[in-house]
Amino acid sequence: MLVPKSITTLRSYSRSQFTSDVTAGVIVGVVALPLAIAFAIASGVTPDRGLYTAIIAGFLISALGGSRVQIGGPTGAFVVIVYGIVQKYGIDGLIVATIMAGVILLILGVAKLGSAIKFIPHPVVVGFTSGIAVIIFSSQMKDFLGLRMGDLPVEFIPKWQAIASHLDSANAQAVAVAGVALLIMVLWPRVSHRIPSPFVALIATTLAVRLFNIPIETIGTKFGAISATLPHLIVPHISLEQATALVAPAFTIALLAAIESLLSAVVADGMIGGRHRSNMELIAQGVANIVAPMFGGMPATGAIARTATNVKNGGRTPVAGMVHALTLLLITLFFGRWAALIPLATLAAILVVVAYHMSEWRTFRSELTAPRSDVVVLLTTFSLTVLVDLTVAIEVGMVLAAFLFMRRMAEVTNVSVVTRELAEALESDDDDDPNSVRRRKIPSGVEVFEINGPFFFGAAEQFKDTFGQIAKNPKVLIIRMRDVPAIDSTGLHALHELASRCKHDGTLLLLADVHAQPMFALVRSDMLAELGEENLFGNLDDALDRARHHLGLPAVPHPAEAVPTVARETPQSDAPKIA
Predict the structure, then answer these.
(1) Which one of 143, 197, 484, 504 is most buried, by most CB atoms within 10 A?
(2) Residue 564: DSSP 8-state
(3) Predicted local confidence at residue 438, as pLDDT
(4) Tens of pLDDT along 241-293?
């Protein structure tokens, strides 16, 4: 249902809920202030762009979204990709890439593909999330230690080489300020959960630096004063060639925004006992990422930590998210100039804590005990995120996960030669399955094969290999498909090749126990015409009757009317041998 939660929740809105939403919104706005500034600086843009993103995108995501309590704005997930775009294409390139990502998100939502995002493999998500955390941590070491050096290199290894070569220039006072901020954020929750620890750390260290004239770098000394005005419309200037090159980063931004926003919405659902509308959430994310960059913003998505803070402080409707955006707007307009006093060491400490929580190191460690193929996907995605590029990491991770999925599908799907195993059935004391081949008489010259599992491209080669083992062509070949819930075009092609081979060898091909999806696929393809509708059966008994009729043998009672048996009607001397 493409209806914003703001419309449905306000139908039964109360004054008490409004009070709770306003309180939660103000608190979340205070929490978002240092984070918005820190994420902007870490992304290589000015602090005001982070504030504009939190205000504009935050308001739109709450007003149009599919979650009751989602809080939107800039997040750590975008730091790596945004920094790379700004370094290569400038601010105009970032604006265009973000707008393109917004369009992609809008299309995903309108096409109702929100549920498809949930199928991204967990090792891929953990891999790039942990990789981003490592990069954020690395990028903050310069300000955390107060190193006297130029801009850090973009690449991971050269970045740490540059940090190591300038350690002798570390500023003990900057380290002390960052350490105090870190200590406050760790210990303050023991005092109060009502007032957010990052805000307390920011106020305390900023006052200390100002009162004691501590000579460390601040926002003002690096970026100048933050403009206490409303943002204005920006028209980017970029070439067609650059716009084409930005398609891949735009898809990465869209994918990150979709994953993080829907993950945040799912977490929020668990906290409030609600249910979000994933497609409407994607539409809201799309609109926010189209509008925000036009007024100086950067990519935005749902923020898990801020959403959780909203819920814990009583927010239960989108009003809280809209109040959070308005709170940030008022702070920017009336107190924005004071933000220039914030020490960069404090913001670095805040982002170090963000990186720690974002790393999910316990989840990462537990994933290392998963099946080897998942570990390969995890480590590959993590390594590529850290050492190469986030876009490449996601692409390779998804492709690798897809190939491993194919292999697993091939492993769970098997093609068994039922008639070859009938001798083993004689040793069985009983068989409770009324549909078992053991309860049927298999005429000589008839082979029964059974496919177990989805017949997708991953199982097609196994199918061909199994039938390639037939040393002598049978007179009738029955393919039983009672355990095949689905078939794709590659599976149909494998059946088509088998039908052509049987026709050439003079073997009658019959299909039995075909389910709805495979039946629909056969009807839509030309396979049914080649096979013959008279050779397609709903159960094995009818297929065996057709085989007997083809061989000129008399009909026999079905298992329900006869004593179960596994004996053949004639000696097996004419039966095909399996290599």
Answers:
(1) 143
(2) -
(3) 59
(4) 999 999 999 999 999 999 999 989 988 998 898 899 999 999 999 999 999 99
Cβ pair 34, 347 in contact under 8 A: yes
For every residue of 266-280, DSSP letters joined together read: HHHHHHHT----HHH
509: enclosing H helix or E strand: strand 508-512
Tell me, what DSSP letter sits at residue 29? H
Torsion of CA 161, 164, 168, 171, to 10 degrees: 100
Q: What is the pLDDT of residue 12?
A: 83
Which residue, 414, 79, 109, 107, is CA-closest to 265? 109
- Cβ-proximal residues to 502 (8 Å cutoff; 6+ apart), any chain: 477, 508, 509
CA dihedral 445, 447, 448, 451 (to 10 degrees): -160
| Phi, psi (degrees; rounded to nearest 5) at 481 | -125, 35
Following CA atoms 180, 186, 188, 193 in sequence, which dihedral angle do they give, to the nearest 10 degrees? 150
Least Cα distance to 153 among 162, 144, 145 occurs for: 162
What is the CB neighbour count within 10 angstroms for residue 439? 20
C-alpha–C-alpha distance, residues 175 and 501, integer Å: 76
CA dihedral (6, 8, 9, 13) positive or negative: positive
pLDDT digits (tens, 9 = 90+) for 445-494: 888 888 888 887 667 777 777 777 665 778 999 998 888 888 888 888 88
* 54 vs 332: CA distance, rounded Å: 11
The one-letter amino acid code at 108 reads: L
Q: In angstroms, what is the C-alpha Rg of the chain? A: 32
For residue 415, give the H/E element and its range.
strand 414-417
Cα–Cα distance for residue pair 495/497, rounded to 1 Å: 5
Burial environment of residue 39 by CB neighbours within 10 A (0 to 12, 13 to 18, 19 or more): buried
Is 81:253 a contact under the CB 8 Å cutoff? yes
Structure confidence by residue, pLDDT tens digits, 127-159: 988 999 999 999 999 999 999 998 888 889 999
DSSP 284-328: HHHHHHHHGGGGT----EE-HHHHHHHHHTT--SHHHHHHHHHHH
For CA atoms 402, 404, 408, 410, give the dihedral sign.
Answer: positive
Interatomic CA distance for residues 290 and 228, integer angstroms = 23
Both tokens of 542, joined, read 């009818």
Please give the C-alpha separations between residue 217 and each of 49, 203, 372, in angstroms, as whole numbers. 20, 16, 47
Residue with tokens 């959070």: 324
d(C-alpha 8, C-alpha 104), whole Å: 26
For the chain, counts of helices (H) and of strands (E):
25, 7
Q: Is 93 within 8 Å of 86 (Cβ atoms)? A: yes
Say which amino acid occupies 283. I
For β-strands 536-537 and 446-452, DSSP reports them as unpaired
**What is d(CA 350, CA 368) in angstroms, rounded to the nearest whole number?**
28
Which backbone phi and psi does 453 adopt, to 5 degrees?
Answer: 115, 170
DSSP 555: P
Whole-model pTM: value is 0.76
Choose between 237 and 571: higher pLDDT. Answer: 237
Task: Determine contact, residues 325/48, Cβ cutoff 8 Å.
Answer: no
